[in-house]
Design the sequence.
């Protein structure tokens, strides 16, 4: 489940495709303006996962980089390693502890699955989610509630600062588990080298080909 959350969050960032239209709610249009401002970004992250009783289950640290559309690298360093890489056409999921890599095509069929509802396959975010925004003193918060009953989470909250920098992402699922991902050292780059978004399969690694 945690691995699916990684894919969902990364694809939300790299390809929101939430262009506003007359049918979008004002909150969805505002969220669109924030998401479209994210491009060529690198950052570190810390992920805390809590159970329904608010007890800490796991803390995960890592780094990420992204370039829209559809290019990203989301790498968990400790305590468990995992790498998700997309060059815009192919998605690699590498698990060093399992010595296994899954390779799949990044296409409309993949992005339309429940776990990837935020991949940008929909024309408008309001088609898949009810969106609510809240302006705090120094922050903007957006709550996205899936309209589909088969979604893997009950709600997703995105928290931005006044400069439209994404600070935190909070996921809550149907059993009350909460995952909080906090970003730090966020840097907007002019350009990120394309080879960052390529992956070479290590020798001796099992390959699961799903393309």
Sequence:
């Amino acid at each position: 489940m945690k691995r699916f959350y990684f894919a969902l969050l990364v694809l939300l960032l790299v390809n929101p495709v939430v262009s506003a239209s007359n049918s979008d709610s004002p909150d969805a249009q505002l969220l669109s303006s924030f998401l479209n401002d994210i491009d060529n970004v690198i950052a570190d992250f810390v992920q805390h996962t809590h159970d329904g009783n608010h007890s800490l289950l796991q803390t995960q640290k890592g780094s990420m980089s992204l370039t829209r559309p559809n290019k990203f690298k989301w790498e968990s360093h400790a305590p468990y390693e995992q790498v998700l890489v997309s060059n815009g056409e192919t998605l690699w999921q590498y698990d060093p502890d399992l010595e296994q890599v899954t390779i799949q095509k990044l296409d409309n069929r993949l992005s339309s699955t429940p776990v990837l509802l935020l991949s940008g396959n929909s024309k408008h975010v309001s088609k898949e989610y009810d969106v609510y925004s809240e302006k705090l003193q120094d922050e903007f918060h957006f709550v996205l509630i899936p309209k589909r009953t088969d979604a893997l989470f009950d709600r997703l909250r995105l928290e931005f600062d006044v400069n439209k920098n994404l600070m935190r992402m909070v996921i809550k699922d149907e059993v009350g588990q909460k995952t909080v991902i906090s970003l730090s050292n966020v840097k907007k780059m002019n350009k990120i080298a394309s080879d960052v978004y390529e992956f070479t399969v290590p020798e001796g690694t099992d390959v699961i080909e799903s393309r």
Q: What stands out?
A: Confidence is low (pLDDT under 50) at residues 108-123. The first strand starts at residue 41 and ends at 50. Helices lie at 2-14, 26-35, 108-111, 125-128. The domain at 2-209 is CATH 2.50.20.10 (outer membrane lipoprotein receptor (LolB), chain A).
